[in-house]
Design a protein that fits this description.
Layout: H1 2-10, H2 27-37, E1 55-58, E2 64-69, E3 76-83, H3 97-104, H4 116-123, E4 133-136, E5 141-148, H5 152-167, H6 173-189, H7 193-205, H8 220-225, H9 228-238, E6 244-250, H10 254-265, E7 289-295, E8 302-311, H11 318-341, E9 351-360, E10 363-371, H12 376-394, H13 398-417, H14 424-437, H15 444-454, H16 460-470, E11 478-484, H17 492-503, E12 529-535, E13 540-545, E14 550-555, E15 563-570, H18 581-585, H19 587-593, H20 601-607, E16 613-619, E17 623-630, H21 635-645, H22 653-670, H23 674-687, H24 707-718, E18 725-730, H25 734-744, E19 768-774, E20 781-790, H26 795-819, E21 827-833, E22 839-848, H27 853-870, H28 874-891, H29 895-908, H30 918-924, H31 927-937, E23 943-949, H32 953-965
Parallel strand pairs: 2-6, 7-11, 14-18, 19-23
Antiparallel strand pairs: 1-2, 3-5, 3-6, 4-5, 8-10, 8-11, 9-10, 12-13, 13-14, 15-17, 15-18, 16-17, 20-22, 20-23, 21-22
Helix pairs in contact: 1-11, 3-9, 5-10, 11-12, 11-13, 11-16, 12-16, 12-17, 13-15, 19-24, 21-25, 26-27, 26-28, 26-31, 27-31, 28-30
């Protein structure tokens, strides 16, 4: 897992990670530490070995393969075909065709006719998009095929699929023309502010490199007019075994897997002559320049400083691994400082980061970036440059280094603890990176040893020297501003002047204030367990504590280092009047932004360094909610956090102002976004401006939030734990956890309070309501259809509704995308609810072109009417059942699945044992059930239709004329 694991887990701004309050490591980790001490010391110049968990081989034709047996999830195999060829290899007449080839992999091959492959895989439980998928990037194309291993023929056929992808695509002319429309819809879906701005930014980011001209989606001109020969030429030139890898990870005997790889891929041949596989260069930037790119529909304002690129050399030695650890520690410390500035009363930015990161697999550069707040670009650039300069000149403190070391070690410890419980897809991704980027794959046992032996020896002096070397002091750079078009948008000269002044500023060392080392000096006076019962069928232990709090426990072996917690009761925002809705809605976020008890958020991060525990509490619409997570050794920390949440609120007016200021800035940036306008129009059509309806707030509305009233609302609901039923699922020992529960949950205050929700009168519109919204400059549209009504809730009816929606989604993809080429993606979702009254809601969202809107709506209703008259095709219903059963079997080994089910059963009064009957209930679903559900829930006399069209009619006209004018060139032979 190497550096990607380190970088991903050490960025404090991206996660909360924390170890046990007691200093003892888990017994297994302690044994690993003792065992490591008996091994010969590490030689830094030694190469990093390939771990014993994976077999890496190479066929005579140059194809590489990776095979690992892994039992999680059970009866599942993750297959990947990796092609070291992407859009960077396209000729001028092929721009976008690397990606188009990927699409054609699902449109017919030697052994599968068009639609046959997807249909077959769906029939054995493999979902299209959710499971079966692929992606194309600059330098690679990757095909993703998860397959059930229940039957040997499924596995054999899956390898045939991979082989067909590798050298057996058909490229039928009719299929190409049909897919051309789908890919053009995908291109249309990506149009907007970010696309327009990206076309100006990419040449500067890549400093004139070919990468700037080879975005994987390609150009509309080529996509509309390319001849099939250009497509097959790309496939012939670059889909060849010496540029391929096959990855096999999962529930399979390695010898059987290797035999299948050889039998399907050994006969592949490389073309003669073979085109050399070039790698595009990115020139190093010599001069300093600024670029300002704005758009009226931009989603926000940001600045980026990109320093000159450097070639990436993967040395593959233990010394290089140690260098990556140094880089990770440095990045964590610097980004913690940047995050601290974002929590000042008047922060210079909303968020920021700075690190040495990869631009492509072969190049990296040092970058500093920030999302701008009310103070604008000057304040953000000044802070970014000064904090980098401060670290370069003065370095870091011993306390900062100690904290990030703790977090790094705890992250690796968690990964090692879960080594036998890691999903096959995680390992597959690691082997893909090894093939494409030469990332080391020694295995977590070896990596954990490296970290335990190397991290303690990384000194503060070494880190500070690294900072001086790494943070550029005097070099060419690109200073980039992106944002919403405004009169006060800075000019390039202003940006360069700000950066130059900050580089010359007089600075002082960072003041790292000492804080407490623990959350609580002593535990509270413990309560007691007054009753205990057991449910052997579900593996549950139910406790009642002396303060009336009830707890449900399910100890599992699904993960070795994960405990999840939740609690809920009725109440929430519904108990507060319309005049208080903003104060209630934002109470959670406001209270969280100010810290806990006497600790600010910055204090909390320092105290929790090296621990894996987090807790959030808040008011949902109709419930009060507590959610938490921890590692197996950090349960006490999680429970302490929970206890502290009920002990009052830390009031900090400066942090409140900082939070509100960020929300105001975000609101200002959303006003011109077509998506935000569209979403608000849908809610307005549905709920006629009801004060409780969800919507985008205007910037000035945030000024109505009252700090003290928000605090009062929070305290009113969370000064008492009465009627909260806590559920904990995960890797814990029952005997060890019970005293902790008695201490922290048993001592929570439980005075009287209202435990009920209030029906606030939020009801959807009746009859047929149709609206049009005109927003956005691109020729693109979105259709929203919402069906609502009264319904009686039951688990069986919820299952029928869910099955109906799955069938609808199959029909949308099969008809609107594959047969009619009117959309790239889209679908339906819905819910059946009993709170605050029995009701259902179904939403259908379909992005398309303005010229297709009427056809898409008509086709959608035609499919609905077919379901209402004839019910589903038996094959479609079987696909839904198969996929559900596969997912359910896998989910039964997930803590989160059990937690969600138990919480729902507790809140809604349903039978928790129903989880054991899901497969039987799914198998019992019939076509008549789906037809009946379609008739009940798709009421064509009661729905809301909202269509987003371009702001000007000219854009709509352009879309229609573009389709007609850009017909593809005639195919050879007619």
């Amino acid at each position: 897992m190497s550096k990607y694991f380190v970088r991903g887990l050490c960025m404090v701004a991206m996660l909360v990670a924390h170890p046990a309050l007691n200093a003892k490591p888990p017994a297994a980790a302690a044994r690993a530490t003792a065992a490591a001490s008996a091994i010969a010391p590490l030689r830094l110049d030694a190469p990093i070995p390939v771990g014993p968990q994976v077999k890496v081989g190479k066929l005579a034709n140059g194809l590489t393969y990776y095979i690992q047996r892994n039992a999680r999830p059970e009866r599942k195999l993750e297959l990947r075909l990796v092609v070291k060829a992407g859009s960077i290899l396209e000729d001028e007449d092929q721009r976008g065709l690397a990606h188009f080839v990927e699409h054609m992999a699902f449109n017919g091959s030697t052994h599968f006719h068009k639609h046959e492959l997807v249909s077959y895989l769906q029939s054995i439980g493999v979902g299209f998009g959710a499971d079966l998928n692929a992606y194309t990037s600059f330098d690679e194309t990757v095909y993703i095929l998860p397959i059930p291993t229940d039957k040997p023929e499924h596995v054999a056929k899956a390898f045939q699929v991979l082989e067909d992808w590798a050298h057996g695509l058909r490229f039928d002319p009719d299929a190409i023309e049909k897919e051309r429309g789908i890919v053009l819809e995908e291109l249309r879906l990506g149009k907007g502010a970010s696309d327009r701005m990206g076309k100006q930014i990419m040449p500067a980011i890549f400093n004139g490199s070919k990468y700037a001209e080879r975005l994987p989606i390609g150009t509309e001109e080529v996509l509309r007019s390319f001849r099939p020969e250009a497509l097959t030429r790309f496939y012939r030139d670059w889909y060849r075994p010496d540029l391929m890898a096959v990855v096999v990870v999962g529930d399979i005997e390695p010898a059987r897997a290797e035999q299948l790889v050889k039998s399907h891929f050994a006969r592949l041949k490389n073309p003669v002559p073979a085109r050399p596989r070039p790698y595009a260069e990115i020139p190093a930037r010599q001069a300093t320049e600024a670029l300002v790119v704005t758009d009226q529909e931009a989603t926000g304002n940001a600045v980026l400083i990109r320093y000159p690129v450097q070639p990436v050399v993967e040395a593959g030695t233990i010394r290089a691994y140690r260098d990556d650890l140094v880089q990770a520690l440095f990045s964590s410390m610097l980004n913690q400082r940047l995050q601290e500035l974002s929590q000042l009363p008047e922060p210079p930015y909303m968020g920021a980061s700075s690190s040495l990161g990869k631009l492509t697999p072969r190049y990296r550069s040092y970058n500093a970036s920030a999302a701008l707040g009310p103070r604008g670009a000057e304040a953000a650039l000044t802070a970014l440059v000064e904090e980098n300069e401060r670290a370069r000149r003065f370095g870091f403190s011993a306390a900062e280094l100690e904290r990030v070391k703790k977090s790094l070690m705890r992250n690796y410890e968690q990964a090692w603890n879960e080594r036998a419980k890691s999903d096959s897809a995680t390992y597959a991704a690691e082997y893909i990176r090894n093939f494409l980027q030469q990332e080391a794959i020694p295995g977590i046992d070896t990596e954990y040893r490296y970290v335990r032996e190397l991290v303690p020896g990384i000194t503060l002096e070494e880190l500070n020297a690294y900072a001086r070397r790494t943070i550029p002091a005097d070099s060419g750079k690109l200073v980039l501003y992106t944002g919403v078009t405004r009169p006060d948008t800075p000019q390039g000269a202003q940006l360069l002047g700000t950066v130059a002044s900050a580089e010359r500023a007089r600075l002082h060392p960072h003041d790292d204030k000492a804080v407490a080392t623990r959350l609580m000096e002593r535990p509270p006076r413990a309560g007691t367990i007054v009753s205990e019962t057991h449910d052997k069928a579900l593996g549950l232990t139910r406790l009642e504590l002396s303060n009336g709090v009830k707890v449900i426990l399910k100890s599992t072996d699904f993960r070795n280092d994960q405990v999840l917690m939740s609690a809920a009761r009725f109440g929430g925002q519904s108990l507060f009047g319309d005049q208080d809705i903003l104060n209630a809605r934002f109470a959670n976020a406001i209270v969280a932004s100010m810290g806990v008890r006497e600790f600010s958020p910055l204090d909390m991060r320092k105290i929790l360094a090296g621990k894996a525990a987090q807790v959030n509490v808040g008011l949902a619409n109709y419930t009060d909610v507590v959610v938490g997570a921890s590692g197996a050794t950090d349960i006490e920390t999680m429970l302490q956090l929970t206890w502290l949440k009920f002990q009052g609120v830390r009031r900090d007016e400066d942090l409140f102002k900082s939070y509100v200021g960020k929300q105001v800035e975000q609101a200002r940036n959303q006003t011109a976004q077509p998506g935000a306008r569209f979403g608000d129009a849908v809610m307005e059509a549905l709920y006629n401006k009801h004060p409780r309806a969800p919507r985008t707030l205007r910037a000035e509305e945030y000024e109505q939030i009252d700090l003290d009233r928000s605090i009062d609302i929070f305290r009113e609901r969370f000064s008492s734990a009465r009627d909260l039923g806590f559920i904990l699922v995960g890797s814990f020992d029952l005997a060890a956890i019970k005293p902790l529960l008695a201490t922290y949950l048993g001592s929570l205050p439980t005075p009287e309070l209202t435990v009920a929700y209030r029906d606030v009168g939020l009801r959807p519109a009746q009859g047929v309501v149709k609206r049009e919204v005109r927003s956005g400059s691109e020729p693109k549209s979105t259709i929203s259809l919402t069906f609502t009504g009264m319904a009686e809730f039951s688990e069986a009816e919820q299952l029928r509704l869910s099955a109906l929606l799955e069938v609808v989604n199959l029909r949308i993809i099969d008809v609107l995308r594959e047969k009619m080429a009117l959309i790239y993606g889209g679908g339906a979702s819905g819910v059946l609810s009993k709170i605050p009254y029995g009701n259902y809601s179904i939403g259908v969202t379909l992005p398309t072109g303005p010229e297709h809107v009427d056809k898409v709506i008509a086709a959608t209703f035609a499919e609905i009417e077919k379901l209402q008259q004839d019910g589903p095709d038996a094959a479609d219903l079987d696909k839904v059942k198969s996929n559900w059963i596969q997912n359910h079997r896998r989910s039964l080994r997930e803590n989160g699945y059990w937690l969600g089910h138990l919480q729902t059963a507790l809140s809604e009064g349903t039978d928790p044992a129903a989880i054991l009957q899901v497969e039987k209930q799914v198998q019992a679903l019939s076509g008549a059930d789906i037809r009946g559900a379609a008739r009940r829930y798709f009421n064509q006399q009661n729905y809301v239709q909202v269509v987003l069209n371009p702001e000007t009619q000219a854009a709509t006209t352009m879309a229609a004329s573009g389709v007609q004018a850009a017909a593809p060139a005639p195919l050879p032979g007619g």
